[in-house]
Amino acid sequence: MAETPQEKSKATEAGFQPLRKTSKESTSKDKLIEGSAWMTAGSILSRLLGAIYIIPWVIWFGSMSDEANALFAKGYNIYSFFLIAAIAGIPSAVAKQVAHYNTMNEFAVGQRLYKRGLLLSGATGIVCALVLYFGAPLFSNSDPNVVPTLHSLAWAVLIIPTMSLTRGFFQGYQEMAPSAISQFVEQLARVAYMLISAFIIMRVQHGNWVSAVSQSTFAAFIGAIGGIFVLFLYYLRHRSRLRELAENSKQELAIPTKQLYKEIIAQATPFIIIGSAITIFQLIDQFTFFNIMQQAFNYSTRLVNTLYAYFAFNSNKLVMIVVSLGSAMAITAVPMLSEAKTRGNKREINNQVTDALLLFSFFMIPSALGMAAIAQPLNTLFYHYDVIGTLVLELSAYVSIILGLFTVIAAIMQGISENVRAVGYFAIGTVVKFALQFPLVAYLGAMGPLISTAIGFAIVSGLILRHLNQEYGIGYRRMSKPFAGILVFSLIVFAVASVVVRVSYLFLDPYSKLIALLVCVLAACLGGFVYLYIALKTRLADMMLGDRVERIRRLLRIH
Q1: Which Pfam families does this chain map to (predicted)?
Q2: What 8-state DSSP symbol labels residue 445?
Q3: Which of 86, 267, 524, 525 would you call most buried, defined as having the most Cβ atoms within 10 angstroms of its Cβ?
Q4: Same domain, 428 and 281
């Protein structure tokens, strides 16, 4: 059935979702909130699963848990870099370009772009998997235990690029549900395999801990199979609608296949660097921390491994739950900004950037400060009672605000095609990270890498924000009042949660995991309720989320 002129015009308006065949019009802020809600839900649930498994996993590994965590982190950091190279920024680039062509009512071109991208991502996946598998000894940094871990991870590199590309395709249509649900299923399958294999090897067979870690990392491949299956079902569900959109698009652009590949590569290349920014900093830590610590302190290898696990795995696993809030909004913002850029609408870009920063602050700041407040019971619950581990987790929670901010504004730069400039700013931050790494690690030990990372990303973020303000203007005046409220309310949350933790541990056993769970739940629930109540009472939540919160206000009888 052919589209009406009204339907065609709506295809160019912010918030229109052609796959749903809906006549409802949405503002860009509505679209950002809805997309962020889906991506946040998927990301948070996935991260929670990826953190909760640690509790039994650590128990089953016993005294070798910290070394197992360190080995897991070493393998995953290298794997993450290869995975980003295999994905090559193609999903985000395809999402951006698909949104660009959809805005022009050239749906057929966007779909051709996706199909060509499948061939490209499949090829890069094969190449990178082979390099990772056969080059494992070269990337192990002289640690033989890392080699089998990298071998097990190479299998995931084969298929994850295709899965990520398909997520990017749906995101180009501003459909975030497929990505969110497939992400959750991927993590669920991965965690299930990890726990089953770890239990069998460590508890039933009383086997080698390195073999158990290798099976736990192989779980990434199992998870990827689950994730790509969900996306395949979504594609089948929307196949007829996609065909209809392609048939009824303008079809005025005749773009050769060679040019489509050029577009993908040109858009994707800067995404590789920006998309792997946090991983690059983690690799810098991995390949410098051990040498610096041994030179400065002459510690044993096992002790350095334990300290490395504190910040590279233990705290990182937990704070990435919070950082995922930022990445969820970042993914949502890219196709929307691309649409606004295509239309040349600077005012819309200004509004979207301002809304994204406010939404980020509304969720990220209280979450990070809340995690810092409950760092002691949280670290005890997931790992074991440890003063240094608690301090590292608390610092990591503060640093997560900077990491999340970078994730959001880097995605904004990509959405408005400022990729090269973003890469240049990141290069400056990397130089700063390198310059500060040795003195900070030598002086502060496990805290050093976190502080050098925070300073490096703070500089990059500051440069990006300055550029965005110069080119498009950021509504700092509009942001000032709600941001001040967010900051004050977040500090109240921090104070409430801190008091709960400190008072609880005046009477309760700090070494007990059960007590730690109770303290975490009590502090998090009380702090979260206080933030929700104040945000609703002062109408801050209405300013951030619109009329959606009215039902919650009525339910809680807040007037």
Answers
A1: Polysacc_synt
A2: G
A3: 86
A4: yes
Q: Report the candidate in 187, 233, 192, 183 with the shortest Cα–Cα distance to residue 40.
A: 183
Q: Which residue has the tokens 């460590």?
A: 202
Which residue, 370, 387, 386, 61, is CA-closest to 212? 61
CA dihedral of 119, 125, 126, 130, whole degrees rounded to 10: 160
Q: Is 88 left (phi over 0), alpha (psi -120 to 50) or beta?
A: left
Amino acid (1-letter code) at residue 527: G
Contact call for residues 172 and 95 (beta carbons, < 8 A):
yes
* Inter-residue contact 44 to 404 (CB < 8 Å): no
For residue 515, being part of any structural domain is answered with no
Residue showing tokens 């990591």: 396
Neighbours of 2 (CB within 10 A): 8
Q: How far apart are the C-alpha atoms of 129 and 48, rounded to whole Å? A: 28
SS (H, E, C) 524-543: HHHHHHHHHHHHHHCCHHHH
- What tens digit of pLDDT does each residue of 276-289 get? 788 889 989 988 99
| Mean pLDDT along residues 240-263 | 74
How many angstroms separate the CA atoms of 207 and 215, rounded? Answer: 12
Per-residue pLDDT reduced to its tens digit, 421-456: 888 999 999 999 999 999 999 999 999 999 999 999
Helix (H, G, I), strand (E, B) or coil at 381: helix
pLDDT above 70 for 506: yes
> What are the start-end ranges of the H helices in 276-314?
277-297, 301-309
Specify whether 343 is located in the same domain as 260. no
What is the residue whose two structure tokens read 């022009």? 104
> Which tokens go with 141?
């940094």
The C-alpha angle with vertex 414 and arms to 15 and 30, in degrees rounded to 5, equals 20
Domain that holds residue 122: 29-242+255-267
Can you give the pTM of this predicted structure? 0.75
Q: Is residue 367 within 8 Å of residue 322, measured between CB atoms?
A: yes
Residue 554 lies in a domain: no
**Tokens 């009590």 belong to residue:** 522
Instruction: Kindly state whether residue 232 falls inside one of the protein's structural domains.
Output: yes
